[in-house]
Amino acid sequence: MSRALGVDPGERRVGLAISDEDGVIAQPLSTLTRRGDAQVASEIAKLVREREVATVVVGLALRLDGSEGERARRARALVAALRRAVHDGVDVVTQDERLTSVAAERALGEAGVREKQRRREGLTDRVAAALLLQAFLDERRASLASARVRAQGGLQGPAEGDR
Q: Using CA of residue 110, residue 137, residue 23, residue 9, what is the dihedral sign?
């Protein structure tokens, strides 16, 4: 596995999270002020180089019915800008991020972080990025484990004498 960077794109701020080197655990990293896709892509590309990131995971804000709206279209535009900005060999992928901001708000509220502090410091954006990145890492790990089982001939049923 390898290091991944989670990106939670918002209208004003972009939350970032990073995984450990093994690509197992996501943690909040920082928040960027958004002034445009090119600026965000440039700042993220710099982080990708500095942190030796192999995969950038951009949150795709789908509607509850799974369709794409304006927020998803803006996320796809950021993905295109990132693909131009990062060097070859870095994957830029999307991850469904429905309700990650709601979950982040709830978790921070339960931890006693005041709403004013969450907004001022961009905490919600960073935690939402960590949630979407963790979902991606968990799915990737499960997919790899499933592929290993299939490559080894799948799960075996009971032996002939056990029936």
A: negative
Neighbours of 151 (CB within 10 A): 8
The encoded tokens of residue 6 equal 């989670």
Residue range 112-120: average pLDDT? 63
Higher-scoring residue by pLDDT: 60, 115 = 60
Give the span between the Cα atoms of 50 and 63, in whole angstroms: 34
Residue type at position 85: A
Sheet holding 4-9, edge to edge: 26-33, 13-19, 4-9, 55-60, 91-96
List b or e across 36-61, with b for residues whose CB sees 16 or more CB atoms inside 10 angstroms. Answer: ebeebbebbbebbeeeebbbbbbbbb
| Domain ranges within the chain, ordered by starting residue | 4-137
In terms of CATH architecture, what is 4-137?
A: 2-Layer Sandwich (3.30)
Tell me: pLDDT of 158 over 60.
Answer: no
Query: CA 125, CA 14: separation in Å to the nearest integer?
Result: 6
Q: Distance from first CA to last CA of the chain, Å, rounded?
A: 40
- The 3-state DSSP class for residue 156 equals coil
